[in-house]
Every structure is written in structure tokens, then in C-alpha cells.
Amino acid sequence: MTPATPVQDGPIRREQRYLGDRGVIALVALLSAFVPLSTDLYLPALPTMGNYFSVSVHLTNLTLILFFIFFSIGLLFWGPLSDKYGRRPVLLVGLTIYILASGSCALSENIYLLILSRVLQAIGGSAASAVATAMVKDLFDGRQRESVLALVQSMVVIAPAVAPVLGAYMLNFTSWRGIFWILAGIGLFSMAGSLALSETLTHRYTGTVVMAIGRLGTVLKNPGFTSLLLTFSLVSSASLAFVGASSYIYQNGFGLSEQGFSYFFALNALGLISGPLLYLRLSRSFNRNSIITACFVGMTISGGLVCWLGNLGPWAFALSLLPASILGSGARPAGAHLMLEQQKEDTGSASALIGCAGLLLGSLGMILISQDWENTILVLGLVNLVIGVLCGSLWLLISKLKIAQDVPDSVR
């Protein structure tokens, strides 16, 4: 292994001259929210965009599906580069691409140019997510890191709660093009915060770029990391399947307006917000393993409720799916913390793999739910049920065989 070269003596986390600890956490939350912001803000406009370009639902959904796929690929590129060149330079380059691509989306005159612009937007935006989790590992340790991850997760899912409502409201005054100009503005705001950021990486990888990217394979050879990565990334298949189908279920299936859809989508997002906070509260009285097991059991039960009651109406569907949203997001801070603890070096690569695996498996969920199903709600319920059973089984196996490094709940 090529040794790392110190960039600066001692920890940097006390030396954020302009942002401070709270500013850094807020910036990390914003950077982590690039996926929901870049997708959920324009979800209410998806049917309208399909009509505008006179294209099929499947072609319109490519603006979502390809975004997730290329966002995932970008993570694998930017993460290792941030281990070599630092978090801040990678962040600034990626945000520049994101801002320009967002403007291109707004100016697109056909669906194919929009799809291409979305691909570039994904590649640029992935730099933000690639360094966000790595920065948390750079700056915080033990239980403090787990608390920050939970806080960031809660702040992140405010974006899906607010974005569809804001997107639907904007459609009363502007077209879908205005939404992409808003995303360009968010990119500019993130750029300002990133310019004020002091570099968080203390030791840089000194090998070549190819060798840096090759560290992804080294990380994947760690069985503890890889087993946890598969287990917790599968949850994204269920959550992103809902994202891909939600506007069609509520608007085309239940006949709600764009505004009405945004309110029900926000209800689901509020469940996502409460999940990490619920985990933090429960972790004071119960051990981490038991909480994670309960989350996967709850997802399974919720999936069954969606299959049974989901077709009765929008409220029945939303309330039966809500436990899966709460418990799925509740398991994520613990999962991210455990995965980061398995890897003492190559934090950027580990962070990239965490983001990439979640998005790739989430994209598979979106592709699955986008097929011509006779009963989309039933399929969505089955997805949650099966994912709950599968993740729960994998988690119990990992715990029983002690595949992953044990991280005591009391570590700080």
C-alpha cells in the first residue's frame, strides 16, 4: 500500500475559521441533499414534462433513472480523487459542472438534450455527496460521529419534504425550466459555502490517480465493510422505488393535483426526517443491534400493510407506507457509522462506495417499479416486504458470524 503523506499536523476540525462546527455540519447536510434536491424538486413536473415533449413515461423517467446511475458512477471517481487531492478541490470542480449542467437542463429543447444535461448534472453533483460523508469521518469520532450522521440525515430529508411542495408551488408561476434554474442557484449557494471551507483531509494518498481509484477494490476486500454495505444499501431499493412511482400513484392513480401529491409526498418525507431522530432517542435505552433488527422487522410489516390496504385510497397508502419510511431511514445512521468504522483509511473511497451502492440498488428499485405493472401499489408493497426480510436476514447473519468489526454502543 502506498503510504499517505501528511498535509497538516493534528486534526483540522477545530480550525474551520469561517464556517465553524455548525457551519460545517450545515454544509455537509446541504451537500448530502444533492440527490433529493436534484430529483424531488421536479417530481411534480414529470407528467407535465412528458406531455411537453410528447414522449412516453419510460422516456421521461430516464431523466430520473440515468441521473441516479451516473451519480453513482461519479461517486466512484470523485471519492478516491478526494483522498488524493483533498475534499475541497474536488468539491469546487464538481459544483462548477453541476451549476453549468443545471443551466443546460433549463435551456433544453428536446428530451434527449435534457437527458444528456441530467447526466452531466449527476456527474457534477456526485462530487458533493462523495466528499460529504468523508468529511464527517475526517471531523468527528465515535458517538459524536453517529450523532452528526443522524442529524445530517434528518436535515437531508427535509429536502424531499419541502422540494415537491416548492416544485408544485413554482409550477403555478413558471414552467419546469424554472425549477432547474433554482437547482443552479442551489449549486451557487453550495459553491459559496465550499469556498469558505478549510480542507478537512489530514493525510493524502500519494499514489497515482489510477492507483487511487484502485483503492475502491481494496476497500471492497474488507468483508466487514462489504457485508454491511450490501445490507444497508438494499434499503434504498425500496425508498427510491417509491420516489419513482409516487407522482404517478398519487396523480394518475388517485387523481390528485400536483399540489395534492406534494403534500402526501411531504408526509412520507416527514417520516424519513423522524427516523434518524428516533434512532438517537432509542439508542439511549437500547443497543444498536436490537434497534436495527426492529427497523427491518418494521419495514417487513409495513410492506405487508401496503399490499393489503394501499389501494383503498391516498391516505391508506400513505399511512401504511409511513412505518417503512421511518424505520428504513432510522437504520441508516447506525449503518453508515458501522461501515465507516470498518475502514481506518481510504475514507473517500469508502464514502463513495456507500453512496454508489445505495444509488445503484435504488436505481434498480426505480427500474423495477417503472415497468407496466397492473397494480403498482401492490408491487411497491412487495418490494418493501421483501427488502425488509432480506436485510433483516443479512443483518442477523452478520451479527451471528461476527463478520464486521464490533463497535460498542458506548464508544465515543
From TrEMBL:
CDD domains: MFS_MdfA_MDR_like (cd17320). It is found in: Cell membrane. PROSITE patterns: MFS (PS50850). SUPFAM superfamilies: MFS general substrate transporter (SSF103473). It comes from Methanosphaerula palustris (strain ATCC BAA-1556 / DSM 19958 / E1-9c). It is a multi-pass membrane protein. It comes from the Archaea. Residues 24-402 form the Major facilitator superfamily (MFS) profile domain. The keyword Transferase does not apply. The keyword Cell membrane applies. GO terms for biological process: xenobiotic detoxification by transmembrane export across the plasma membrane. Its main location: membrane. Keywords: Cell membrane, Membrane, Transmembrane, Transmembrane helix, Transport. This is Drug resistance transporter, Bcr/CflA subfamily. GO terms for cellular component: plasma membrane. It holds the Pfam family MFS_1. The chain crosses the membrane at residues 23-43, 55-78, 90-113, 119-136, 148-172, 178-197, 225-249, 261-279, 291-311, 352-371, 377-398.
